[in-house]
Amino acid sequence: MDLRLLQYYIQECASTLSLDGAVGRTWSQDVPQLAFGGANYGLLHSMLAVSATRILPNVNEKDTFALQGQIHYGKAISLLRQRDLTARENVIPTLATIMLLSWYEVHIPFPS
Question: What is the largest CA-CA distance in the chain?
Fold first, then answer.
């Protein structure tokens, strides 16, 4: 299921988080690379949480995906709390994580 959420995030969800062009590609290309490029598991979980929320209208297994979103959200928050927020290398992944968690919390109906 996580693979399906990741695919949905990259192909459908990320493009709705920002403007078209280079800024939009940040969410579909740079953020996933950042999540996998280091120990940025909180960022990965926040991507999956947002994806789980956004995929709900398109799936029959709404309860399953909603639960997965909650699980990933909880893991992202837990990892964020453990993060050294004073370390320079954590600034960008932490900001991206917080932005994604905000989009999870306040679902703004972006067109897909």
Answer: 43
Whether 37 is in a domain gets the answer yes
Residue 80: closest CA among 55, 97, 105: 97
Residue 111 counted as domain residue: no
Task: Specify the higher pLDDT residue, 56 or 19.
Answer: 56
Domain containing residue 90 = 2-105
Residues of the chain with pLDDT > 90: what percent?
64
Contacts of residue 56, Cβ cutoff 8 Å, sequence gap at least 6: 62, 65, 66
Q: What is the pLDDT of residues 66-85, one digit of tens each?
A: 999 999 999 999 999 999 98
Number of domains within the chain: 1
